[in-house]
Write a structure and sequence with these properties.
Length: about 325
């Protein structure tokens, strides 16, 4: 197998593009596609400061690398969820990445904002862990952007993430979720930062290959609470489809964006107000984050609050966080030169 660009030995075959690349040419190809996506979708310009939400995983660190190398002004944001060893290891990866490149990294702990880390929020509220976690992340991302003067937050959602989300929303015909399925969510209120997903055209496999070839030290393990998530099942189904018909995921997502999303767009006349407690946007009087914080406070006695805030497991440790979403490892996908 030969590299399409230089004719040298290819290390990665991209069946959906019917092509193959050597390492350096794949890196160039990947960067070109991501930066072209940023420009074509008008995500941000080189004059704007971009807050890049990083989790320590391959996607967000690959994104930060591409944007930094592409000449954009970036600052990382790590949200410490307080999920046992997983959070400690992922935070260390983000700090090392930032330090090696001399890039600024902001760290915000959910425990400080909410009064308890994510596992304790789960125990205190019985709300599905990922729902409380997702809500907290969106809230903290937006607030960190506003407070830091960043007009835009970039996240590392890739093609597999977006296609799986679309698949799930379509199965439920969740119209408001379909209306929000966009690589760019504009700032529809003065207190909302723009949210963008520059990797939405790049597959998980391609992103992992980029991170590997760039020598980025990322956390391979997935969050322990990801086990059994419906989105993982949807990803597996789409992977089977992609295996027999390369390009299916991209066609599904791009086809929706081109042809169907407009049908759902007007059906969501959302009026945003400011939360009377924290000033962040909400559709009611008090925002969902403040309500959740109240719930946590009510459910926990003072001693429990102290323990939860310092990330002591309140019931039991979650199952080991080894290779939960997939056993994919970039190294096994790259053919040795
Ligand atoms: S939502 Fe759920 Fe993730 Fe939060 S609790 Fe873990 S798996 S980190 S993307
Ligand atoms: Zn609020």
């Amino acid at each position: 197998m030969k590299c399409r660009k230089c004719g040298g030995r290819a290390v990665l075959e991209l069946r959906r593009h019917n092509t193959a690349f050597c390492g350096p040419d794949f890196v160039t190809f990947f960067r070109h596609h991501v930066l072209e996506t940023v420009r074509r979708w008008r995500m941000f310009t080189t004059d704007e400061s971009v807050l890049v939400a990083v989790s320590g995983g391959k996607d967000s660190l690959a994104l930060w690398d591409v944007l930094h190398e592409g000449g954009y002004r970036t600052t990382g944001l790590y949200i410490d969820l307080g999920i046992f060893d997983y959070s400690r290891a992922s935070k260390a990866r983000c700090e090392a990445f930032a330090a090696e490149r001399g890039l600024p990294l902001r760290v915000v702990a959910v425990a400080e904002e909410m009064g308890a880390a994510i596992p304790a929020v789960r125990d205190a509220t019985r709300r599905p862990t990922c729902s409380a976690c997702g809500l907290s992340k969106r809230y903290i991302m937006n607030r960190a952007a506003l407070e830091g003067g960043f007009p835009v937050v970039a996240t590392g959602h890739n093609l597999d993430d977006e296609a799986a989300t679309l698949f799930g929303s379509t199965l439920r015909w969740d119209e408001s979720a379909l209306a929000r399925q966009m690589p760019v969510l504009g700032a529809t209120h003065a207190k909302l930062a723009r949210r963008v997903k520059p990797l939405f055209r790049m597959s998980e496999r391609e992103t992992a290959a980029y991170a590997f070839l760039r020598g980025i030290d990322y956390i391979v393990e997935e969050c322990p609470f990801a086990r059994g998530a419906t989105s993982i099942m949807h990803k597996e189904l789409l992977n089977r489809l992609e295996d027999t018909s390369p390009g299916s995921k991209a066609m599904f997502l791009q086809g929706f964006l081109d042809k169907a999303r407009g049908l759902f767009q007007e059906r969501e006349p959302v009026v945003l107000m400011e939360c009377v407690r924290c000033g962040q946007t909400t559709t009611g009087e008090i925002c969902a984050f403040c309500k959740l914080r109240d719930q946590v406070k009510r459910a926990m006695r003072p001693t429990e609050r102290t323990a939860a805030a310092v990330d002591l497991p309140s019931t039991e440790d979650p199952p080991s966080a080894r290779g939960l979403i997939s056993d994919f490892h970039a190294a096994s996908e790259i053919h040795a030169p």
